[in-house]
What does this fold into?
Amino acid sequence: MAKAELKQDATEARIAALAMPKGGKWIAAARAEALARLRAMGLPARRDEYWRYTRPDTLTQADAPAAALFDGKEPPVFDSVDRLRIVFVDGVFDAAASDDLTMSGVEIERLETASGADIHWAKDLYGVLEARGQKPVDRPLAALNSAFATDGVLIRVTGKAAKPVSLIYTHASETSDAILHHVVKLEKGAELTLLENGPAAARFNKVLEVEVADGARFHHIRAQGRDHERRAATHVFTRLGTESQFKSFTLTVNGVMTRNEAVIELTGDDAVAHIAGAAMGDGAFHHDDTVFITHDAVNCESRQVFKKVLRNGAVGVFQGKILVKEGAQKTDGYQISQSLLLDGDSQFLAKPELEIYADDVACSHGSTSGAIDMDALYYLRSRGVPRKEATDLLVLSFLAEAVDEIEDEGLREEIVSRLTGWLARRGS
Amino acid sequence: MLEIKNLHVKLEAEDKAILKGVDLVIEPGKVHAIMGPNGSGKSTLSYVLSGRDGYEVTEGEATLDGVDILEMEPEERAAAGLFLAFQYPVEIPGVGNMTFLRTAVNAQRKARGQDEMSAAEFLKVIREKAKTLQIDADMLKRPVNVGFSGGEKKRNEILQMAMLEPKMCILDETDSGLDVDAMKLVSDGVNALRDAGRSFLVITHYQRLLDHIKPDVVHIMADGRIIKTGGPDLALEVEKNGYADLLAEAGAA
It folds into this structure.
């Protein structure tokens, strides 16, 4: 059988295992279009160039592989942060566990409720940013999400949100397979911090579409942790207007399979997009950060900072591209991806790319893999710091550039406390 | 205090002998200086005493207050009271100077079975000590040695020494890269720590540091051995005549 046919069969097998949710006209149309996109592309297969370093099979197969539930005692991240909580259990909205969804300057609506309407503001964004992000590279798991997502939230921000909106994903069933789709629209000058945390499900497919209008600011801090056997494929698609800001940070702690894709389009002049990640993996851990940033306006800044700490056979992947279109002059693009390999068994695979069609730009990229700096370790130990503590300090030192991307001090400390906790729980 | 007997050391990687029988006894409260040409083994001695990897002791011993230190981990030697001021202090991005020092102070206290210093107490002590070394609040907050000038790095070493209060301090070419004013500041910091219970081993190329930190004993090291020991005058003699005569004398002996 030809390769294309095999791919088609696998895609149809996955589609057959899913049910398209009911909904009003606007969403039914968006879902149908997404399904058509998915069928045209086919689900990712091992031979696909974009999946060269990450095996997609467990993310695409019809049934989710089981994942044991987290049995650790530490409280969830962000617990001490004042925020509006929206809880999903295995991908289903839990009203009882969530806060009241009203906040000044912010409209929050559950996808299921909104999809009952015949028209909705989200019509211009749901599946639309995702579809834009399908060129020049296919992202079939995102199209699958737009077609079959059963839940999620639609957030429209008209002012400065008084506190962060926090999406909390709880995992309750060992075989849950969750598909969530969120849309965030920040109107001109609006500002929102979105928090996300939790393992969500045995397998989690999530799309977040974010429209950042002129002068608006969006901050996103995500913590992926807990259940070690969890699998996730997530996408964030964003489009930035003039003088707007998008800043996203992700902490990933363990997890047998994670692919986080980000597709960022700078369409208004003087926009700023920063995306950062700190990942720590021990043993059965595969973490893939795949980023595509398109500069399509003048004087924009983009920054990618990805750091991974790997041990006991953990694997880290980074695929990052900056595309500077013709006319996107004065672009300032920065990209760094680094791994700290704590032993000889771990692996880091990186593919940094620049594609530039404008002549007045400053773009840099760098990628390194290295071990703990022995001089620094000796220096710390010579001051009386034991080897284990000294190594932990150097791990934090390595991750600092990524963690420092979190502007809010309180939230940054929440993340740092997670990192130190993870390190403290591990032997040397 | 520190007693070194017939110490032989080779580089692990190259199987090359560096120290070829060093004997040295430093009494409590004394300041000893070691001078010598490049490659004589001065810095190696400081690394071996503080426990850096890559060196193999093939013969001899080194004890601190009668306890063998050569088998100890570097952190154990530090907790036992040994301190090395580095010739090239290491930069550690992302770790605040203050956090680093507090971690070190408390790790040593813990190793000695003492209570950890509270944040408030630590802050009070460090502010006071930093002030005399003209180290401002900004330098305490910044990542360890990152973006520090040569002089700032050396002052930061002395601040660490002042906070850790070791009994045996080794200064490895602390004068390198310092201008006259910075040398004075660093030397004042060292002199302020001179105490009947604390000894110093000052490694230097040049006599000028010893104008500020006055030694009790001066040793000349060459080709992995101490070839001559004398009083402060010996340093002046080296400054004036160079090492050639001393080396010839030792060769002839």
Observations:
- Residues 276 and 305 of chain A are 5 Å apart (CA to CA).
